[in-house]
Write a structure and sequence with these properties.
alpha/beta
Length: 286
């Protein structure tokens, strides 16, 4: 396994742009790829805003922010990731789409380049099986907002080799994050514990047990949580919570992971939380 010197990121959404930003801040040249120039422009605007906030807090100097911005190149074609030592995909949470991208990367990247997925719940073993070099596939699960959250869950597929796991663990530390490694399982550790809690809070609303405000207040005051489960669901995105619950439900074939009917209804209505302005609470336009 060669040293990681250049990072590729697929997906210029909230997670992809955050991953690109923290890698660039740590001194790595980054190529961020998405299908459209418009998506890449939005990501760059978002990163500039994030870096400006860090400068305002005196976490970065203006010169460091400018240097980080200069390290990020953008691309609309996957083949521009050919010389990256690691490619981290942060695209839609669907097994077929992610597996398809891994197959394409097999024909683009060097055989020793690492292919990492930011999936929040999909089996890494299933994803690795889609690659011609399954030993180089690994999970690298960041949390939102990426520049702020400290944890990176590193998930080893059944096929992941030790050198790949070690290289990704070292990279995680190099970008200022804390790595924690787990074996492959649907939802891994954090979301296997967190998503069902959010889902059960939604069931409490569905059953009319208490208001969203009171449910969140009870968990903050009674369990010392910094944020209530419903507000957290709105922050994560209720569509993402539903995806995780469906992955757990179908993956384990266990009714305890059944998504709340109200969660399904809200996603069908387009009430995803903060990103749409409406979830269990209302939010100002972004």
């Amino acid at each position: 396994m060669s040293e990681i010197r250049k990072v590729g990121v697929i997906g210029a959404g909230t997670m992809g742009s955050g991953i690109a930003q923290v890698c660039a801040m740590a001194g790595y040249p980054v190529v961020m790829q998405d299908l459209s120039d418009a998506a890449l422009d939005r990501a760059r605007t978002s990163m500039l805003g994030s870096l400006a906030r860090l400068v305002k807090k005196a976490t970065l100097t203006e010169a460091q922010a400018a240097e980080a911005t200069a390290r990020i190149a953008t691309a609309t074609a996957l083949d521009q990731l050919a010389d990256c030592d690691i490619v981290i995909e942060a695209i839609v949470e669907r097994l077929d789409v992610k597996a398809g991208v891994l197959k394409l990367l097999d024909g683009i990247c060097r055989p020793d380049a690492i292919l990492a997925s930011n999936t929040s719940s999909i089996s890494l073993t299933e994803l690795a099986a889609a690659s011609a070099h399954p030993g180089r596939v690994i999970g690298m699960h960041f949390f939102n907002p990426v520049p702020v959250m400290q944890l990176v869950e590193i998930i080893r597929a059944l096929q992941t080799t030790d050198p790949v796991a070690e290289a990704v663990t070292d990279l995680t530390r190099a970008i200022g994050k804390t790595p924690r490694v787990s074996k492959d399982s649907y939802g891994f550790i954090v979301n296997r514990l967190l998503a069902p809690q959010i889902n059960e809070a939604i069931n409490c609303v569905y059953e009319g047990l208490a208001t969203p405000e009171d449910i969140d207040s009870m968990m903050k005051l009674g369990a010392n949580h910094p944020m209530g489960p419903l507000a957290l669901g709105d922050l994560i995105g209720l569509d993402v919570v539903l995806n995780i619950m469906e992955t757990l439900y179908h993956g384990f074939d266990d009714p305890k992971y059944r998504p709340s009917p109200l969660l399904k209804q809200m996603v069908s209505a387009g009430y995803f939380g903060r990103k749409t302005g409406k979830g269990f609470f209302d939010y100002p336009p972004r």
